[in-house]
Amino acid sequence: MDGTTTQTAAPVLILLGPPGAGKGTQARMLEETFGLVQLSTGDLLRDAVAQGTEAGQQAKAVMEAGQLVSDDIVIAILRDRLAQPDCARGVILDGFPRTAGQAEALDALLAENGQKINAAISLDVDDAAMVTRISGRYTCAACGEGYHDSFKTPAAEGRCDKCDSTEFKRRADDNAETVAARLDAYHEQTAPLIDYYAAQAALMRINAMGQIDEIANKMGAIVKAATR
Ligand code: AMP
To answer: Which pLDDT tens digit goes with each residue over 115-131?
Structure first.
């Protein structure tokens, strides 16, 4: 052993960006194109809240206020999820890490398996546009496909393009007040990770203000190169 970390076959990609940047949408597209597993700590936490687990009970009020859930809770949830067999296909982390402590914990967790991240992709957007993007968004309650009142409505009104469901839902924290708190949390605690990954030579930046497909094409090229 020469002490260097070898990249295993299972890629690990990180999506960085403020709420509304399109991390979830892009992660879902990458999941379909590359067979990676989308791993959203926001989704895992919302599941924990819905199930009323201890972690969920602790996280609920924090999430409603648009603040960050404690590193201990989030790291434990992520570690459990990463240990599940489907993650051996490779993962795309959507909304994790969000603090320096989480980034360091992730590096340590991956190093235990001789892995490291392939790329951290920053979706760069204008803050001012995020409130509009977030306040109009909703998802299919059955399959999770994302929609928006102005930018992406279903082809047949009220019917999901992907699975035909007629049930849709909106997130409780997608309101103007909470969005402002979430943007503050991003700038204070998460944006510094851009420098953290630049220092690891893992950072890729994308202008994410354009069309969804255009951004997906750029993302696809980055992921292809980073997972070769
Ligand atoms: P998201 O679905 O990624 O927008 O996350 C929704 C909410 O879940 C956030 O506003 C936070 O309260 C919480 N959350 C999600 N991921 C994390 C994380 N990595 N660290 C701390 N809190 C998180």
So the answer is: 899 999 999 999 888 98
Apex 99 CA angle, 76 and 132, nearest 5: 110
- Asked whether 42 lines ligand 1 (CB < 6 A), one says yes
Burial of 142 (0-12, 13-18, 19+ CB in 10 A): middle
Distance between CA atoms of 188 and 56, rounded to whole angstroms?
Answer: 24
pLDDT in tens, 81-104: 999 999 999 999 999 999 999 999
- Which structure tokens are listed for 128? 């001012």
Ligand 1 midpoint to CA 12 (Å): 19
Rg (CA), the chain: 17
Report CA(69)–ligand 1 centroid distance (Å): 7
Chain centroid to Cα 7, Å, comes to 22
Please give the pLDDT value at position 1.
39
pTM: 0.90
